[in-house]
Amino acid sequence: MDKNLVIDVGVHTGEDTEFYLKKGFRVIGIEANPNIYHDTKQRLNSYIETGQLLLLNIAVSPQNQPITLYVNLDRSFWSTTSPDFVQRNEFFGTRSTPITVEGRRFEDILQEFGTPYYLKVDIEGADILCLQGLQKVESKPQFLSIESTKVSWNDLLKEFTLLKELGYKKFKAIRQPDVPQQICPFPAKEGQYINHKFEYGASGLFGEEAPGAWLSETEVLKVYKRVFLEYRLLGTNGILKFPLGKILLESLQLKEPWYDTHASL
Where is the Methyltransferase FkbM domain (predicted)? Predict the structure, then answer.
């Protein structure tokens, strides 16, 4: 494991990547959308020139072969390789167009670039591929985060079974709409201290800086039982399935919640 390396799977416009870079980490960034990749590469070019950042225009895939990426035309961060997520996105009134991009297995990426200290994954329906890739390499990241499933309790249990098999024993469930309220601790617990304001949609603090106490699997699943009740009330299978549901949520300025699972060895 390279203690100075972060791998950011799902770079998008680079808000998370830039945070890790400013904290002094070396970053391998993965972004499948070619247009966003080129824009982000240009914006963060100074880090690329110094060798602190390497951006890859690829999609994590089950096979090393071209794969279809459904580029969301209304919410670019909802672009996905998952047909199920395309249906979800259409439910919310967004449009997608398919393009073909290079696909690579995550275990091959790790074998080429090494195991990071922290692995951040947010690739809309394909996060599990990264966990499966970790099964095929010996060394594991000290910390990782994935966007937890919000559709199936059984799928959530499968995620935690896989995390346990990988050696992860401590967990946090981080409510992502609250990330803009996070404050970087001083002195820093991860990398260098920076005074940083997180944007809505950012992954936020990680490792020992992530808010809240580390929980056992039993404890964090109790948290997720409450989270799934929140999903049922405010999610696509709750109030949103009714015609006036979206209007009501917008009038109350409520957003469908989502959570990231953070794990530590």
Answer: 8-169
